[in-house]
User: What shape does this take?
Amino acid sequence: MARPYGAQSEHGRLRKVLLSRPGPELQQVTFHQVKRFGFRDQVWWRGFLREWEGLRALLQGEGVEVIDVRALVGEQVASGCFNMPYTRDSSMVTDAGAVVFNAGLPTRAAESEALRMAYEKLGVPILGQIKDPGTVEGGGVSFLDPKTLLVAQCSRTNGRGIQQLRELLFKNNIVDTVVQLDMGRDQVHIDGAFLKVRPDLAICADHRLRGRPVLASMREGSSKQWPDLLAYLKEQQIEELVINEVEEYGMAANLLMLNDKKGIGYEWNERIAELLADHGIEMLPAAGAELSRGGGGPHCLTAPLLRDDP
Assistant: This one.
């Protein structure tokens, strides 16, 4: 019998995904409130909704089952979660169940309970939850392989949250290695600067990753250090597709991989689409003029519920 949940990969074939339909509450994210909510700019919420529906249609057209968190938790709960369309940040789903995160942005605190409710309705067990003073957001974590998780310490994910997550995953035999990257307090997440798109290939903003120390902790108790993630990738024989600062801002690394031969990215990232095509990977273009105003791309907007093993 096929497992009903589990997504310990960034590029295994995507079967089920959580999205959260945006609502009129986004009208409250005005020009004067964007910093409070972590947005780049205020949005036109109906345009935001139209682009979100386009992303949903792309996923469904590729045979992915899309589950709407808003429909699961109800309007009363969802209307108080202004950032929940960026569904990735509130949790992750392992082969043993969901880990509910604790947002580093105070205005996102209600999302943890909303995702807990959603998983309970879906019958996905809650493996654990990050608690204060620890913070972890999903944009700060990325699977390098099914047994290796990359976690970036940054403004939204702190050391205590990483410690809780590492202990939870090791205790439940979820991963063998947690690779911790110090991104600095000036960075929100890792998923704007890095994404592994297949076992031997990753998109990297080298200017953002260079000189940021990396420490790998193994479940059996040992550890190993590298000067930065680039050195780690070189040792693992993972090729880089390098993006520049302009492309990083345009979320060229913030793709959602459907499998190791196809992904979804914002339509203006034409150069990275060409680079991916040169490596046998198709990038499906998604509109994002409004979606990007919240500081997220297709990776941020989606929370994989079920992927095939890569």
